C-alpha cells in the first residue's frame, strides 16, 4: 500500500468514525482497520 493509499484509508476511517453526517458502516470500518493494521503491524517473529 502506498503512502497516498494509506492516507486515503485513514481519512475515510476518520470520516466514518467522527463525522456525524456520515452513517456508521461497521463492515467498512473493520475492512479499513484490517488494511491499515497490515501496513503498520510489526513483522512477525519467528
Could you please describe the fold and organization of this structure?
By secondary structure, the protein is an all-alpha fold. It has one domain. 67% of the residues lie in helices and 0% in strands. The protein starts with a helix and ends in a 6-residue tail after the last helix. The mean pLDDT is 90.
Briefly characterize the structure:
This protein has helices spanning 3-18, 26-40. With 46 residues, it is mostly helical.
From the N-terminal CA to the C-terminal CA, the straight-line distance is: 24 Å
Computed CA radius of gyration, to the nearest angstrom: 12 Å
Q: Note the total helix count.
A: 2
Derived from helix and strand composition plus strand pairing, the structural class reads mainly alpha
Domain count: the total is 1
Mean pLDDT score = 90
Order of helices and strands: HH
Percentage of helical residues?
55-70%
Query: Which parts are unreliable, with pLDDT below 50 for 5 consecutive residues or more?
Result: none
Shape: elongated
Please describe the structure with a list of short key phrases separated by commas or semicolons:
single chain, 46 residues, mainly alpha, 0% strand
List the helices and strands and how they pair.
Blueprint: H1 3-18, H2 26-40
Helix pairs in contact: 1-2
Amino acid at each position: 500500500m502506498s503512502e497516498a493509499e494509506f492516507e486515503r484509508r485513514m481519512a475515510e476511517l476518520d470520516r466514518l468514525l467522527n463525522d456525524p453526517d456520515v452513517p456508521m458502516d461497521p463492515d467498512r470500518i473493520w475492512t479499513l482497520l484490517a488494511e491499515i493494521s497490515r501496513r503498520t503491524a510489526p513483522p512477525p517473529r519467528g
